[in-house]
C-alpha cells in the first residue's frame, strides 16, 4: 500500500443511507473537501444537494473524471462489494467508515488491495484530518488545531481526548489518522509511521494503540529497529484486570464472551520492547503533552 495524500483530492462518497454519512458530507464540504459525487445504488440521476448521484462507481468516474479517494459509508455487509468496485475503477485509496465488516470480507478486500497497491484505511475508521487543511471522514473538526504533532490511533474517542490535551498545552496536530477499530484493518501503524518520517509538517508522533491487538507487537518491534522522529505511546487497556479491545461495544462484548486465552507476560513483553526502543509510554492521557515537550526539548 502506498500513501499519497493530496490536499485537493477529489472525493467520492459510497453510501448515503444513514445520518452519519449525510452529516459527514456537510462537515467535509464546509471544511473545503472536494467531494465530487455520490454513489448510491438505485438512486442514480438524483441530486444530493449540489452533488450528483450515480448507481455505480464506474458511471461516476466516466462523468466526473479522476477520483483520488473513496469514503465508504455502506453497511458492513456491503463494504466488500463497494470497496472492490472502487478498486476496479482505479481509485487509489478508500476509507472504510463502517464497523463490523466480516473478517473473511476484509481478508478478500486486503488481498485485492495488495495486488493493486490500493490504500485501505479501516474498517471502522473515523478517517483523516489535517487541521485547517483537509478533512476525510467523520471527525468533528473543531476538536483539532494546527500544530506539529501527528496522531496515529486505533481508538476514535481517545483520539479526540488526546487532541484536546495537546490543544490545551499549545501543541496542535499536523495530522490525525484513525486506522480503524475493527480487528482486521488495512493500512497499519507501521506504514503511517514510515510515511510520517518524511512529512515536513510533523515534528513528533503520538501512537494510540490497544494492548490486545497483535499489531501492537509489530509496531513496537518496528520502533525498536528505527531511529526516527520522537514518539510517545499510549496503550489503551493496559491497566485493565481482564484486557479487552477498547473499541465499540459489540467488539468488547464479543471479545469478552469468547473468553480468549490472554497472557499477562505478553503485555510486559510489549512494554519492554517500547522501553528498549526508548519510546515513553504514557500511563495517563494527561501525561502525553509533557512527554512530547520533553522529547522535542521544550521543557
Verbal overview:
The chain is an alpha/beta fold and 299 residues long. The protein folds into 2 domains: 11-121, NAD(P)-binding Rossmann-like Domain (Rossmann fold), CATH 3.40.50; 144-296, Rossmann fold (3-Layer(aba) Sandwich), CATH 3.40.50. 36% of the residues lie in helices and 21% in strands. It is built from 10 helices and 13 strands. The protein has a 7-stranded mixed sheet with strand order 3-4-2-1-5-6-7, with helices on both faces. A 6-stranded mixed sheet has the order 9-8-11-10-12-13, sandwiched between helices. Strand 3 and strand 4 form a beta hairpin. Helix 3 (79-88) runs parallel beside helix 4 (103-116). The radius of gyration is 19 Å and the shape is globular. Residues 254-264 have low confidence and may be disordered.
The CATH class of the largest domain turns out to be Alpha Beta
**Strand-residue proportion:** 15-25%
CATH topology of the largest domain: Rossmann fold
User: Can you summarize the main beta sheet?
Assistant: 7 strands, mixed
- Please indicate the count of domains: 2
- Would you list the SSEs in sequence order as H and E? EHEEEHEHEHEEEEHEHEHEHHH
Q: Tally the helices: what do you get? A: 10
Seen as an oligomer or otherwise, the chain set is single chain
CATH-derived architecture of the largest domain: 3-Layer(aba) Sandwich
Unreliable spans = 254-264
Mean pLDDT: 89
Protein structure class: alpha/beta
The shape is globular
Radius of gyration: 19 Å
Pfam family, one: Succ_CoA_lig
Domain CoA-binding: 4-101
InterPro entries: CoA-bd (IPR003781), CoA_lig_alpha (IPR005810), NAD(P)-bd_dom_sf (IPR036291), Succ_CoA_lig_flav_dom (IPR032875), Succinyl-CoA_synth-like (IPR016102)
Protein name: Succinyl-CoA synthetase, alpha subunit
Amino acid at each position: 500500500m502506498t500513501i499519497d495524500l493530496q490536499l485537493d483530492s477529489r472525493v467520492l462518497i459510497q453510501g448515503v443511507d444513514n445520518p452519519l454519512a449525510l452529516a459527514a458530507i456537510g462537515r467535509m464540504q464546509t471544511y473545503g473537501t472536494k467531494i465530487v459525487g455520490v454513489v448510491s445504488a438505485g438512486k442514480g440521476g438524483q441530486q444530493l444537494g449540489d452533488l450528483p448521484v450515480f448507481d455505480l462507481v464506474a458511471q461516476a468516474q466516466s462523468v466526473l473524471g479522476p477520483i483520488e479517494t473513496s469514503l465508504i459509508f455502506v453497511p458492513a455487509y456491503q463494504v466488500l462489494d463497494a470497496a472492490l468496485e472502487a478498486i476496479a475503477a482505479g481509485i487509489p485509496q478508500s476509507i472504510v467508515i463502517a464497523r463490523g465488516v466480516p473478517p473473511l470480507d476484509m481478508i478478500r478486500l486486503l488481498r485485492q488491495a495488495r495486488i493493486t497497491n490500493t490504500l485501505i484505511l479501516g474498517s471502522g475508521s473515523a478517517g483523516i484530518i489535517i487541521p485547517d487543511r483537509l478533512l476525510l471522514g467523520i471527525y468533528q473538526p473543531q476538536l483539532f488545531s494546527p500544530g506539529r504533532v501527528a496522531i496515529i490511533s486505533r481508538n476514535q474517542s481517545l483520539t479526540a481526548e488526546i487532541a484536546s490535551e495537546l490543544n490545551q498545552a499549545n501543541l496542535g496536530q499536523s495530522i490525525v489518522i484513525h486506522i480503524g477499530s475493527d480487528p482486521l484493518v488495512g493500512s497499519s501503524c507501521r506504514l503511517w509511521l514510515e510515511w510520517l518520517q518524511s512529512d515536513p509538517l510533523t515534528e513528533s508522533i503520538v501512537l494510540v494503540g490497544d494492548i490486545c491487538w497483535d499489531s501492537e507487537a509489530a509496531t513496537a518491534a518496528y520502533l525498536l529497529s528505527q531511529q526516527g522522529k520522537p514518539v510517545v505511546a499510549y496503550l489503551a487497556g493496559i491497566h485493565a484486570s481482564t484486557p479487552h479491545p477498547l473499541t465499540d461495544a459489540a467488539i468488547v462484548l464479543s471479545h469478552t464472551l469468547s473468553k480468549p486465552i490472554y497472557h499477562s507476560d505478553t503485555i510486559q513483553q510489549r512494554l519492554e520492547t517500547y522501553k528498549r526502543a526508548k519510546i515513553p509510554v504514557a500511563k495517563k492521557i494527561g501525561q502525553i503533552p509533557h512527554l512530547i515537550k520533553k522529547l522535542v526539548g521544550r521543557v
